[in-house]
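Notebook entry, structure prediction.
Reason for the run: the old model in the group folder had no record of what sequence produced it. Starting over properly, with the input documented here first.
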Amino acid sequence: MLAAAAPDVSRHKCLIYDGHPSEQLPVVVPLLLDGLKDNWRCLFLGDPDTIRMIDAALAAHNVDTKREQARGALVLSADRSHLEGGAFDPQAMIDGLCTLIDEAVQDGFQGLCATGDMKWELGDDSNFDRLVEYEALLERVFRTRPLRGICQYRRDVIPAPAVREALLTHRSTYIGHVLNRDNLFYIPPEILLERRQDAAQYGEWMCQQIVRVLNAERKRDEALAALEATNRDLEQRIAERTAALEAFAYSVSHDLRAPLRAIGGFSDILAEDFGDILGDQGMVHLGRVRENVGRMADLIEGMLTLAKVMKADLNRQPVDVSALAEAAAQEVRESAPTRSADFVIHRGLGALGDPVLLRAVFDNLIGNAWKFTMHCPRARIEIGQASDAAGPPIFFVRDNGAGFDMRHAQKLFAPFQRLHRQEDFPGTGVGLATVQRVIARHGGKIWAESQPGAGTTFFFTLAEGR
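New structure, fully documented this time:
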């Protein structure tokens, strides 16, 4: 008799995600954090760049990664010695994994918490032919050994048949960041590994699957009914919130600007008429007041910009992206004509979107690149499209400027958050928040790759191409 799927979430999960490797962080990092907290040895297997990203993400959660690695609790590995001559042996890999589990227990850990990039683990695409065998054998290990894990599949680099087979071999599956606790495609290893399948056994499993599908459909219908009841007044709530947003913008523009202008005006009068009385130290303090008045005025303008982006109508039409980028580049050139900078703008870039809002995207991203290359002997700013992109086009704006530490990347698109000191690179922290909201309104995504002193690249997609 085949046992029905357990109600709890399987310890053998897979993550299927699209696009940039950073999309795995919201799933993988909590797994590793929980493993460290529960005294499991945590293993991540992947390419060196992804390992550095995982290390930085754990450090951002206050994990002393060097200490955890030194005591054997954390293993970040790019080892591929199991691929002798590029070939993959499922049983040999399973035997090696069991040895790692035993070693973790012998070293005083509760077990092994393992996760990694399947493309890196399996190597050549031809090795994915043995994926079902490997994952089915692995499922047996999860049932009998102290092992937790997530196998990661990036859909735009892993063969589609391999992704389908991942669904067959994992009871619990993340699609993006959403966990499907009961994967209806799952087939147990007893069936997958048997060459001569028992008809009665297979029939019983299929009956179980039908029951699971019916139960899932019933739960879905109940959830849809509840959602419909909850959101019946959604349009009214949106209208109310839009009105509140407009009222807020009005308040900012009229109620806050007037007293701020008064503070600035009286500060100027104090400086001009009473500078001698205030003395040098007094003038220093007054200068700080005037600087902060200017900064507050910039913040108010930024808040208004955000409000306008949120409520503006979206007017989709074909857009010459190259022309938008050129116009934004010309504007920053004119702001400092003596600066030495090379702009490389790819020709023939096009998209479907709102030309006014997309101009704001390039104004902010190119303005950002211009600002953060101000100390470069020869600034270089490139605007283009990834040539190997699958799905929607991926546009990018790349510079060779100051860069930033990816451990703080989660702050990038939050309003008024900044990664550099004001005295080094002035700004309000509103520009990237505006860009993110414009991209989101177009149904796209935006992310960044950077390294301190080695520049930054912003990537973004839109829902539709040309």
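Summary: The chain is about 50% helix and 15% strand.
The old model has been moved to the deprecated folder.
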